[in-house]
UniProtKB/TrEMBL annotation:
Pfam families per UniProt: DUF4988, LRR_5
InterPro entries tied to this protein: DUF4988, LRR_5, LRR_dom_sf, Surface_bspA-like
Entry-linked Gene3D superfamilies: 3.40.50.12480, Ribonuclease Inhibitor
Superkingdom as given in the UniProt entry: Bacteria
PANTHER family found in the cross-reference section: IG-LIKE DOMAIN-CONTAINING PROTEIN, SURFACE ANTIGEN
Domain DUF4988: residue ranges: 27-144, 165-272
Name this protein carries in UniProt: Leucine-rich repeat protein
Amino acid sequence: MKKIITCMIFGLLSLISCTEYDEIAIWNKSEYIDSRLAALEELCSRMNTYITSLQLIVEALQGNDYVTGVTPVVENGKTIGYTITFIKSGPVTIYHGKDGQQGTAPVIGIKQDGGIYYWTFDGEWLTDDRGDRVMAQGMAGKSAYELAVEKGYRGTLEAWLASLNGSNGNDGKSAYELAVENGYRGTEEEWLESLKGDNGNKGDNGITPKLEIREDGYWYISYDGGQMWTKLDRATGDPGQNGDSMFSDVDNSDPDYLVLTLSENGEQIKLPYYKDKFDLLFVSGTDKVKEMTVYCSAGTTAVVNYELTNPLNAQISIACISHSGYKVTVDKTGKKISVSAPDDPAAISEPESGILVFASDDERTIMRKLVVKQMKYIEYTAHQQLGWNNGAYGPRFGGKNCTFLDEQCTYDKNTKEGKWAYTGTVERVNDGAFLYEDQIISIVLPSGIEIIEGVAFQQSSIETIELPNTLKSIGNTCFGYSKLTRITIPKSVVSLDRAVFSKCAELISADIQANIEELPSNTFEQCSKLQNIKLPESLKRISNNTFINCSLLEEITIPDAVTVIDDKAFSQCSSLKKVILGTQLERIGTNAFNRCSALETILCPDETPATLGKGAFPVADGWTVTNASYRIYVPDEQLETYRQAWPDYWAAPNNFQITKVIYGISSMPTQ
């Protein structure tokens, strides 16, 4: 019995020992499985990252992208990969390594066939459910020329580029019309859209395979972003060490290409460095730019220098498109582009126009842009160069989108001719623009100016000025006390403020064509050399003191529409000999022609006598009848009516003598 019990105890101990050992083994095995699964999942994530990197590289090849830099990725002092930067694409990081041991991850790679990269799986073509090979790149985008050919264009690339020059209007046909003549069947909008971009359309995207490991322990692959999955081999064995990279080598020693070697099949991918491709840049001083602003005035030509980088000596075609009135020519020998503006500024409807410049080597077409701004000038003469912004209160001019270009302003000290260059529209001459300016001689105000503000040229040395047909308003005492000698006011002017030409001692003649109804007070006050004056037919009122003391004025014709001549309007015009009044006069103010001592003839054709203010015309003031120096001629049939209405000038007694100066027109001496 004792022996039996002893055996049972040893048996139980053995059982207990075996159970403890099995539990430890099972625990250890579970730990191993978990760690291996985590490693496989990490491998799966890494593989998907590598696949994405590989496709980005293929897309860079497809998109004619170029390498601008290669930066090593260092870990623990060892280079394990590289970050590649491109001109257009984002940066791509790749890793390289040796084949690992015992790894069972799918070997995904690419292989080229017929110029197209396809995905491979364990060295074989990767196929979809239909058995078609899966492309690693999208279908190449089309250039503008290729798109035109697809639409029926039959000409060569050179002919197509040359046809782009026919768009300036003067040639009679646009570039689109020339393309249609050569077979193009698309709309003009489609044709213009095809010209956009450097590399044609982007093309369809390639397919990116995606891997995952599922709970059943198998690899799965998807070709449609994870919507449909295909089961592959079992994910067994340990992941390889440093063996899951798709690249076995990265060679950056070649000065022309970055060379990537695929781990799977040893195939090499060559990525060109940027310097290998041609480029066209505009030269602006020390800068080289893809877009440049050009200033061009009517009847002139602006020349733009360009630099063509062409290390491979490819045949480069260059052509320009202008959809405005500017003509464009290319001098390939001198590397110059000439932009010519029409003689008539009105031929350019927009202040800013774009000119597209295309360069093509048959494989790649790049587009650059010239922004042409219509440059205008304000011309002047002066004893020295004047600044456009040196007015009494700031800039001399103002306007809409108006920008003055200091670098384009000129002055010739020999001829005394200067120009202020600007873009946009000058709309006004500012208040005090040339106030006290003693160097200016003359100025031509450009079309677009509508307002000359008050005292703009007051007390300046201005002698002549040309006013534009856009001018509407002239401010108070604008030219007062200046040295102005002549003036023509255009029909566009509808408003004159007071004393505009007051005390212009050098003013000889004034032609007022303005569409105004009133000459304000003191307009030509004390213009002592004024000899010739022409008043507009629209005039209805001549205000007080308008021509007072214009001592050299000999003759004046009052327009028929004038109804009022105010007080002292022509007082002290000591050389005035002849006055022709209008047919609708209603009132002549006090002393209107007072002290006009040289007066000989006043012609008054109106059938109805106007109301006269006291001393409207000179009276005897002690003269005898025989030395009264003038006569008033009125319609014969209204002679008595006038003599009765204006008794001071026919029969009214005064303290000295009787002035008798009213006679019929028929008695007026012939000239």
